[in-house]
Amino acid sequence: MRIDEKPFDNKFFSPVLILAALAGVVGLYLILTTVVISEDGVGFIRFAQELRADFAAAIKSNFQHPGFSFIIEKTQLIFAKAGVNEFWSWIYSGQCVALFFRLAAIIAVYHICRLLTDSLTSFTAALIFLFLPDGAQIGANVLSDWPHLAFVAAGMFFVLKWCDKPLVIWAALAGLSAGLGYLVRPESIQIIIYGVFIFLVCLFSRYRNGQKWKVCVSVLLISACFLIFALPYMIAKGGIFPKKAIDLQFAWSPAMPLATVEGMNVLRKILFAGWELLERLSQFMVYFFLPFWMIGLWVGLADKNRNMLYRIVIGSAVVLNIVIMLWLYTRHGYIGRRHLLPLAAFTMWCVPIGITWVTEKFVRPSDVAAKKWFVIIVVIGIVICAPKTFRPIGYKKQICLQAGAWINANTPSDSIVFSKDARVGFYGSRQSVTLLKHAKGSNVYMVSKSNSSLPKTYRSEKIAVIDAKDEQSVLNIYKISSIGSK
Predict the structure, then answer these.
(1) 65 touches 182 (CB < 8 A)
(2) Using CA atoms, how far apart are residues 368 and 231, in angstroms rounded to an integer?
(3) How far is CA 472 from CA 399, 419, 452, 467, in A?
(4) What's phi and psi for 446, nearest 5 deg?
(5) Range list of β-strands (E), 339-383
(6) Side by side, which strands form the sheet with 431-433?
(7) Could you say which of 81, 179, 350, 398 would form a disulfide bridge with 226 (CB–CB 3.0 to 4.6 Å)?
(8) What share of the chain is helix, strand, coil (3-state, %, to 5)?
């Protein structure tokens, strides 16, 4: 039995609708059970509020690209008109925007898989992708990863469609997708890299003989359509990756790990980076699916029956994403699992192909037996995913919610909260700073496990203790002031 040869579409079964419904149910459950959003989510909401107050100034002062926060700002108006509390309307807006784009991205991933293999394999790949814990948790949080992925996946789909039939409309749509994605995250420029690369391969090879003019027009169109959306922002910010190095675009949290690897030589850096990438990829795939992914990647890309241009595009995407991850680690000693979403999206079709290969190699009694073991393996994998997939978002950080509630009830509205975790001030509806030098004013409160890190030029008075017994953690709240101030 070869699972990648069996058709799956029929008028009584819509894979896309089922995937969208499942993703929607999982996402809504996670939104309704959220304890606290991510630190990066606080940053995106603050940015959205700044965009509403002064759009031009917010664009200039923030290094993050504005697309996600802009959509949050517009969506919040809908929640506000529906009578939702203003504070919670910002949170729900961010989560619902992320969930909407998660649905769009999963549908795009299904169609990418559909170009590369049959509908049953595509549905299985998208189903597994849907239940992977990291993806599900990110997709119901206030994070830009899924909006970015939706545009990138759409762009990849259009590039692959061009490979099948070189219509210039596919190049234009790929450029537009990349341009819109660029306004969310700069890594969306990778679609232009894949597109131009495969166009040039066709231009200087035997592929598309007699259609070279279409190839040339496609190169111009994908670039021009990308610049329609991206160029105004580039001009406003003065660069392709403005003001901040590209590696800082991968994470926004002030608590981002910055483990140094400066003491290593180049070879050791690469080896450590490779091991870190393998570990993060294993975690992302809940370990169980990783062997099947690796087998399927090898089998799928080596299959000469599969469109050569498809294999070149997917192969280049795998190489580029791996290089970016290795570079990020050698730069800062850090690879986040959320950064693996594009790599997983482009190659998720390899997982069921890997499962099929294993069942065909080791289960040969009958065609029925191979099918049965295929289903068993997929179900086991999803069951393994379930506990982490349905775990409440931010459940380990409930203490931030408690501290924020105390701040809100017991401090003046003009107070400034100094804490390493921006969520404390956010949930307390107060201005929050993560650097002491920005904590200026007569009502400054520090939320920390202790005041030992406070400079000697500051005085502090402990005024509350927040004890999260379930988390076995304690936060102290201090009122602080400079010794030189009155």
Answers:
(1) yes
(2) 55
(3) 10, 19, 20, 8
(4) -105, 130
(5) none
(6) 431-433, 416-418, 444-448, 473-482, 458-468
(7) 179
(8) 65, 5, 25
What pLDDT is stored for residue 209 in this prediction?
56
**Among residues 394, 372, 346, which one has the least CA distance to residue 126?**
346
Strand blocks (E) in 293-353? none
State whether the Cα torsion 56-154-394-291 is positive or negative: negative
DSSP letter at 395?
G
Q: What is the DSSP letter of 474?
A: E
Among candidate residues 66, 21, 22, 23, the one with its CA nearest the CA of residue 43? 66
Sign of the dihedral through C-alpha 261, 265, 269, 272: negative
Taking CA atoms, 183 is separated from 49, 177, 249, 253, 379, in Å, by 17, 10, 12, 19, 38
Name the average pLDDT for the chain.
89
Q: 149: buried, middle or exposed (CB in 10 Å: 19+, 13-18, 0-12)?
A: buried
Which amino acid is present at 395? Y
Q: Is 260 exposed, middle or buried (0-12, 13-18, 19+ CB in 10 A)?
A: exposed
Q: Which pLDDT value is given to residue 4?
A: 45
Place of tokens 């007569």: 442
pLDDT at residue 259 above 60?
no
Residue 118 Ramachandran class (φ > 0 left, ψ -120 to 50 alpha, else beta): beta
Unique residue bearing structure tokens 């190049």: 171
**Of 219, 262, 249, whose CA–CA distance to 324 is shortest?**
249
What value does the mean pLDDT take over residues 261-265? Answer: 56
